[in-house]
Amino acid sequence: MKHLFKTSAMTFAILGTALGGVGVAHAEQSLTIVSWGGAYSKSQKLAYHDPWTEKTGDKIYMDPKSAQGLAGLRSQVEAGKVTWDLVDMLEGNAITACDEGLVEEIDYDEILAPAPDGTPPSQDFIEGSLSGCFIPQIVYSTVLAYNTTAFPADKQPSKVADLFDLKNFPGKRSLEKIPDGNLEWALVADGVAPDKVYDVLSTQAGVDRAFKKLDTIKDDIVWWDAGAQPPQLLADKEVVMASAYNGRIFNAQVNEDQPFKIMWDGQMFELDGWVVPQGKLTPELKKYLRFATDTQRLADQAKYISYGPARKSSVPLIGKGVNGVDMKEHLPTAKANFFNPIKKDAIWWADHGDEMRQRFNAWLSQ
Amino acid sequence: MTTADGKPLKVSLRRALRRQRIWAFLLVAPLLLFILVTFIVPVFNMALRGIENPQVHDIMPQTTSALKAWDGEGLPAEPVYAALVADLQAGYKSKEIGKVATRLNYEKVGMRSVIMSSARHAKRMKDGPYKEAMIHVNRAWGDPATWRLIKRESAPYTFSYLLAALDAHYDDNGDIAMLPQDRRIYVPLFIRTLLMSATVTLFCILLGYPVAYLLANLPLKISNLLMIMVLLPFWTSLLVRTTTWIVLLQSQGVLNDLMVWLHVIDDQGRIQMIFNKTGTLVAMTHILLPFMILPLYSVMKTVPPSYLRAARSLGANPLVAFWRVYVPQTVSGIGAGSLLVFILSIGYYITPALVGGQSGQMISNMIAYHMQESLNWGLAGALGLLLLVIVLVLYSVYNKFIGIDKIKMG
């Protein structure tokens, strides 16, 4: 009995060391990447995480915490214990994180891969998107979509102003419960040119004007706060029109055969991409970044989700999606869709966001 | 007088008592330590967050000390601008300046851009004079209001967050003023939170009192069964109970379906009972009911039934006997239950978040919002501090008028 105990104790000890050893080796070659979860994380997994694991054997752990990305970064850096290797976030949050020194500055031409024809990254990514720390991956859009069966065939909505036209397009609308986007659309519907929206919003009178326009449909709005809600609300005919992320509407159109249509007029586009937390810019991570943001990888991602690649050189390489749909037609950046677009001004929102949200919340509860 | 070993009795007794006291202390020490680490320290930390203001003070030390001599009239002199440029350069290099930008932007919209763009320009500045150069970089540096703001926020502690939590702010002249009506949210929300908690408490008394009475007075067999029915929901997860109410009350839910089926309402006229104030009130009352029933029950258990019989035999009718003899003996239970329910509901978070919609949100949802979304932890701390003060004030009012020693759990 005593003997048996000794042997098993030793076996465990050996096993423990062996496992521990594996664990350590393993930890060196694994990356924890924070992203948005759902269909978006899946597109990243298929387009670059899986190919990278296949190529190098490195493990990639996906953590769907991007919604709390900035808060998480702040508390991790403050506590001096950063566990994330790469964080997916919106451009606006990335700029704030960069200003506060939470994330690493990136030398784009050194770290990222050039385009196949040799164009350096600084020329290849969308103009003005390389702001210092932010590595853009996709362009996505918040669009207005509607259920085609809710209106007669000869009288379908087509422009932002129709969102506010209760007489010709009656029914409930669903909008996101944040001021972002809604204020811009209110002004565009009120006759402001898309590229002048932020000039107008910078004045008190402009903000009043936007809220006054929103007042006209306030009683007919069903507010949403998760991206999956608007397609559901449209499908259930709880609402006739809704703002939504274009990828979600695409998914409903193609994979669920819903009779939805996007009015691309006044689409609000913004960039989403990566930041590297303070102290995490290791040689290993640099290699991964170079791979995952190269021309082919970003083009591949568009196969799985209808968001536009942030590299110009990726666009010609986009082919048919997994279900045989020509993806190019469905991207927010496609020529036919890039109609009267509003570029969400990340700097303006960084400055005015708190004030607008406070005013918006007060407006909601009135 | 001495003990057997020759020591004076007094000394010996004192020693024995001291040993006892040390033992008692050692026994509660783990609990004290636990409370200190998990409660007192975090509460203190939160309160501190609500008033501390290290950003400008620590990251712009030269400007802070240079501004000490400035009287707040007109523009400060050249040395202040030189200090500003030096601080911006250092802050840009250490990447800390963004914290100042975020902090000042809370006070005045647009300051984030002012600080960040000035820091980028300051990086390239070599020699003075800096005053003209900085005003050229950004007009804000030519506005005395900007300087008054920085001087005010360069103190290591601030009332700004507390003011913001009361829907007030410092105006451009540095005077305290209320925000315009269309931007006030926290005071109305505090009032709503208090009113809703009071309503929930009232509902709990109305619904819980009869149940507790039955529990205490029915034969043991039946009352045991009843007790299990009270305790079973109490032991069920709060999330399960909250989501069950969604299933029951939503517009396509059980209750609406039933009413449509019975032709009480038609299919178009389904009643909105959840994702608003009603939803929060119903779900919270249900969840907090056991906290009212249990203290009431244990108090009622101690009321001798012979008192009621005596009252009846002395000629009181049942109602009078109940109201004048029975109820007064249970007041301490009502007090304990109300205090429990009220204080629990004032800080309720998850239930309003799930079933409250827009009109059923409470102040803790706003605190969570500032912790997780807007990341204004100072404001979250100030709101938490105010909530704590409100609870303590209510508690002391309660103590003054009813007396905390009157509370009985049984």
From TrEMBL, chain A:
InterPro entries: SBP (IPR006059)
Record's keyword annotation contains Acyltransferase: no
Keywords: Signal
Keyword Membrane: no
A Pfam short name: SBP_bac_8
Signal peptide: 1-27
PANTHER family for this protein: ABC TRANSPORTER SUBSTRATE-BINDING PROTEIN, SPERMIDINE/PUTRESCINE-BINDING PERIPLASMIC PROTEIN
Protein name: ABC transporter substrate-binding protein
Taxonomic placement: Bacteria, Pseudomonadati, Pseudomonadota, Gammaproteobacteria, Pseudomonadales
From TrEMBL, chain B:
UniProt topology in membrane: Multi-pass membrane protein
Residues annotated as domain ABC transmembrane type-1: 190-398
Transmembrane stretches, start-end: 22-44, 193-216, 222-240, 280-300, 306-327, 334-355, 375-398
Gene3D superfamilies: MetI-like
Keyword entries, A-Z: Cell membrane, Membrane, Transmembrane, Transmembrane helix, Transport
Localisation: Cell membrane
Entry-linked SUPFAM superfamilies: MetI-like
InterPro entries: MetI-like (IPR000515), MetI-like_sf (IPR035906)
PANTHER family named among the record's database cross-references: ABC TRANSPORTER PERMEASE PROTEIN, INNER MEMBRANE ABC TRANSPORTER PERMEASE PROTEIN YDCU-RELATED-RELATED
Family statement drawn from the similarity comment of this UniProt entry: Belongs to the binding-protein-dependent transport system permease family. CysTW subfamily.
Protein name per Swiss-Prot or TrEMBL: ABC transporter permease
Species per Swiss-Prot/TrEMBL record: Marinobacter halodurans
